[in-house]
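Hello,

Our lab assistant flagged a job as stuck in the queue for most of the afternoon. It eventually completed. Since we weren't sure the result was trustworthy after the delay, we are filing this so someone can double-check. Below is the sequence as submitted and the structure that was eventually returned. Let us know if re-running is recommended.
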Amino acid sequence: MWSSARLEERAKKAAENLGEPIPRELIDVLQHIIISHHGVPEFGAVKIPGTPEAIAVHMIENMDAKLMMSLGACRGENAGEGNWTEWMKSLNGRLYRPDVAQPTAVPTPRALELAPPLTEALAMVRGAMGSGEAFDPRSSTRSLRVYMTDVGETVLLPALMSHLQERSPAMRLESAQLPAAELPLRLESGDVDLAIGYLPQLPEKIRRARLFEEHYVCLTRPDHPLGRKGPLTLKEFLAARHVLIASMGSGHQALERALAERGVHENVALRMPHFVVVPLIIANTDLVVTVPSRVAAATGRLVKSKVHPLPIPLPSFDVSVFWHERVENDGANRWLRGAMVELFGRDR
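-- returned structure --
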């Protein structure tokens, strides 16, 4: 929860540096901006913006988030066909894509000039919440936004939410799914607090903690005709009809390349932007899907299924939790990172 004492301390230090006191009215305005910048309580605001300055900061942040979502929708996984994107729940509609919205479009010089200071300003406002103050998980009502695909949600969220219910019952999480290419900026600006997954494209300046090592397996229904007399062979695998999932993120391009090189794309019966319904499809068809091993294990707890070793040699990969250096000492962020390492670390 936001500590007014923390702001008072910073104001005192600023006054010492300036050689004159900071007006009480200015301190009150700054505190109100910080506790109201999310706009409404369901998004984490302690107060609804009630000053022109607070409204301005909230609107800038809201514009920043929606603009990034709209650009991601036009250029990323939800680009759709033709001039219209797929339906975007977060934007409550589809977006029209004229030529300027295609991937060849580039920001104007003025937009490039404004981007760094705006990103810096937003990060300072967001980072002020909770930074350096005592954090009590049992009483905290903080809201944190965590990037993960729905494949990651299947593996991580059941255990994580059970842990939060026991250790931090009032903390709130929002699972965010967006194009992986946007993650560095979203983490830097504070729009996303943490990211979890196999994300080798993130720059080195993004901090990380390894959770566990993963590898791919194949998943079928238990009485599938393939692999009955022994391990699933490469010939059987290549001849099978497959489901491909796009939501696993750009880190999984090695899998997609390996499948394409062996001609599997010619036997793709279904392409899915998400994982959620795939277990039901696999359980009721002869289709085969290739997924990380922990996803297959989680699927086995939902529907009857059979796990096969992947007959294509692929290296294992690390699943990690990522955060920006700005939130290194944020109490809630640090506690949640620690909880994830406790729950999922050490290859449990």
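-- support follow-up --
The delay was a queue issue, not a problem with the job. The result is valid. The longest helix spans residues 52-75. The domain at 216-315 is CATH 3.40.190.10 (D-Maltodextrin-Binding Protein; domain 2).
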